[in-house]
Amino acid sequence: MRVKLSGDIIVDSCFSFGGMAPFTICCPALSTYFAGKPWSREIIDGALEVMDKALHLPHNVPGGQAEYRQSLTQSFLFKFFLQVSASSHRLSSAVQPGEESCLSHLTNNFVHEGVRGVQHSCFPSGTASQEAKGQAGQSTKHMAGDLHVTGKAVYTDDMPLLPDELHCELLVSTKARAKIVSIDASAAELVPGFVDFTSAKDIPGVNWVGSILPDEEVFATSQVYCVGQPLGVVVATSPAAAKEAMFAVKVAYEELPAVISIEDAIHERSYFDFGPALPHQTALTVGRVTSERHRHMDKAEALDALMKELSEDDNVAIAEGEIYLGGQEHFYLEPHATRVEPGENDEYIVTSSTQNPSKTQKLVSMVLGVPRHKIVSKCKRMGGGFGGKETRSCFFSAYAAVASHKLKRPLRLVLDRDVDMATSGQRHAFLARYKVAADKTTKKLLAASVELFNNGGWSTDLSVPVCERALFHCENVYFIPNTSFVGHVCKTNIPSNTAFRGFGGPQGMFVCEVYMDHIARELGTTREALAHENLYRIGQITPYGQELDEDHVFVMWQKILQTSDYENRRKAIEQFNLANRYVKRGLSIVGTKFGMSFTKTFMNQAGALVHVYQDGTVLVTHGGTEMGQGLHTKVAQVAASAFDIPLSAIYISETSTDKVANTHPTAASVGSDINGFAVLEACRKILEGLGPYLSRCRTPQPTTDEERISTLAKAATLAHFDRVNLSANGFYATPDISWDWVKYTGKPFYYFGHGVACTEVEVDALTGDHKVIRADVLHDVGNSLNPVIDIGQIEGAFVQGLGLFTIEQVVFNNNGHLFTKGPGTYKIPTALDIPRDFRVSLLPNAPSKSSTIHSSKGVGEPPLFLGSSAYFAIKNACYAAQRDALASLASHSCKISGGGLSQGTTRTLTNGCESDEDTIDTTDCASTNGHTSLNGAQSELQTGDPPSKASPLSPPYFRMDGGATSERIRLSCWDDMNVRVRKGDFDAARHWAPLA
Ligand code: MTE
Ligand code: MOS
């Protein structure tokens, strides 16, 4: 953008914009408009009108985001106007008070602000110094940390090639749903290096497999059900040749109608059932209605009846709505990778990047028809799993195994990032419809009903348990006496969605906080204030009948109010927002309570194998896998404590099904809980025999680490000469838990992990960009096994949650192709997206009340939901922007459309000015909205006064789907520009790209 002024008169100008067409375009209409006019405030308003007409995008424009792109170009022009005005003393009167702050967000003023972090943990006082280095409870670095940061750590694809080893490339469907007419690999055979095309006909065992239910074909035979579904593997002598040959395979399809989005699935009633426990049932309910009158009824019906009664009570506020939260890509550093190595007699060694070595072994065994005792499945480490390798990894090993079996050669299958993203499944998107009731006087929640839909993709995989966990978390940290949470798993034609850190829990809790925000606005208060009134206390009972024995969220909430200086900062933000029109700040507090245990009770078991050698060193193997979370370090610390030796004398080399058998995935955050106990049991068994020798060798007591190791060495050697077993296995099964869906009885969770976060953001209302200024996190890990690792987990989970609830957005095209297949289109948080001031503390002196390993608690997933505090802080900032827009009604009639991106309705407010046909007056608006403070706002506005500082306008609840992307933020921060472009029906924007 360029303008040339002579005096105050614009003599020449030029405007060009990217992102408004396939190429950069000029906007001559603007130059014509400006020519000869004086530089003034009025002129910019006219210019924006001109621009709106000249740079109009239809709703179905390729690339989508029509309203956002139009708003953004207008914002850009407006910022340019402000910048030119502000830069010249003569023109500066065109800038109104409160507008200049948005200029600091211009890229030419871009300042790299530093990021700082503070971490607090409380060490059990006095003990650390007496213990050997690295025992349980001490902060020691990740055992493989040095290898990670120097690049020496060996991941699956870092293993040297074996003689004769081949490379595979997956051939996948390019249609969302189609009949396979033919597959022709003849052209592939001509590619130099081509070795084989392996498909369904080459499978010696079964072709139908699955994570829980066998509803997936290893290689598709007659039909495909999603883009990315495997048809076979192409094997060649190099990865490049395999890829080239794969592209040469010709597949002919006959396309069939497909279901992509959750809305499509609801429309087609395309659901999976909840079998085998609940066969033919496509809805599952968690809930409890306490009122006597309704007890005999079905849970959902009872809640409906109760809600109906409540809605007739004048003292009860009701909020009803719908909310969507998109999916999330795992984006682990290491994409799926596996190597299969055949041996004599049908032996196979499968080395892969997996959270689930036993399921890998099982699937390979099934597809090859080879018994499991001949298949060893191993994993040294993963470059991240985040749930994405809980089940989906196993399938890649099965694909490769078929080819290895056919060719009798070792081979590896390593996915490229785009293939990984497009085929291996992601976090489930959720759509929820809710209704919630609260008492207007006491501000207590009375009842909540939620209907959840998650997008399962083409096969069930883990979608049913993900939905269950979401239902178990729909009340988050609040006591609600009457609840009914109903879930459905949508069957669609996208890749099968799978586990992702939190496993549905964060989605369920998000819905809860959204309905809390909604009902709070109805009650004329804030979500934070309402939350405070309704936090769970000890002895209260969850919707699934579990009595709570801890109320750490309540305790931590009070604490964080102080440590974050919440009240003062909230007031300061209030002032800041009154003083700044286009830069808004928001502050929010979010609590979380995460149920710990697999909801499938039988999965809560673990095994271990421990060997003590005569040099005083110990080799530990357990059923858990290392994905960067520090599990091996924590488990080794448990063993170090048991033998009273330093961590350096313990080694964990890998996870392997021939050392510990019949394991479950390392998931549900209970890796250290259950494997720690299994290892401890093995250590205790060894110590039974070794104990007498140790007592002898421990006089005098060893004081240094070296003495401790040599003491164990002496004892082990003596014991060995006395023919005492120095090896043992250990086993653990989590006690006291059970859950029966049919009888609706039991205790699904052994205990809960808790956390609270207070986050402040700053939003650029003109672009929708935001930054997280500060986040305070307080988290409960019981007595930490390793405070620094736990804090690392909390920081990582928080930031991954930040990504989910803000910038990350999965987009599918209408034809079922994933559009966001790499870092170019899919944005995860990076260095400057983390909180600029990040303060993480562990709740001190709070050993787990349940009997857990060294009184610790699992930490991997629970803090993820705390990242949503950024979303709610952003939303508070958007409310502030809407308040300004409402306030401007005082001076002129202004049409304001109602809220979030996906809200189709347009609500129009007037202020006693002449109304045109499409204008409804606010009394109508207030009654449909049921919102009281809007009425208050209206009367205040009619006086023509700007909102006073004492009684700030409180805009009504609006829907803003998650995550809070810049598009959603920009369109929620109302002003003349985006109101102008938002005349149409918002849902139309989805036609280009359905949010699956
Ligand atoms: N941390 C790192 N660095 N990498 C990961 O892949 N996965 C998370 C969490 N933390 C993950 C991580 C997930 S989804 C789970 S369930 C837990 O770690 C699993 O490990 P744990 O049970 O040992 O906590
Ligand atoms: Mo974690 S989603 O339970 O692997």
What's the SSE blueprint?
Elements: E1 2-6, E2 9-14, E3 16-17, E4 25-26, H1 28-34, H2 41-54, H3 66-87, E5 116-120, H4 145-150, E6 166-172, E7 178-184, H5 186-189, E8 194-199, E9 208-209, E10 216-217, E11 223-224, E12 230-236, H6 239-248, E13 250-255, H7 262-268, E14 271-272, E15 284-288, H8 299-311, E16 316-325, E17 337-342, E18 348-352, H9 357-368, E19 375-379, H10 392-407, E20 411-414, H11 417-423, E21 430-439, E22 445-457, H12 463-471, E23 482-491, H13 505-522, H14 527-534, H15 552-563, H16 566-579, E24 583-596, E25 605-612, E26 618-622, H17 631-643, E27 650-651, E28 655-656, H18 671-697, H19 705-721, E29 727-733, E30 738-740, E31 745-747, E32 751-764, E33 770-780, H20 787-805, E34 837-842, H21 868-887, H22 922-929, H23 932-942, H24 966-972, H25 976-981
Parallel strand pairs: 5-34, 6-20, 18-19, 22-23, 26-27, 33-34
Antiparallel strand pairs: 1-2, 3-4, 6-12, 7-11, 7-13, 8-12, 9-10, 14-23, 15-23, 16-21, 17-18, 17-20, 19-28, 21-22, 24-32, 25-26, 25-29, 30-31, 32-33
Bound molecules: ligand MTE and dioxothiomolybdenum(VI) ion.
Dioxothiomolybdenum(VI) ion (MOS) binds at residues 355, 387, 390, 499-501, 503, 667-668, 861.
GO molecular function, one term: oxidoreductase activity
Protein name: Aldehyde oxidase/xanthine dehydrogenase a/b hammerhead domain-containing protein
Pfam families: Ald_Xan_dh_C, CO_deh_flav_C, MoCoBD_1, MoCoBD_2
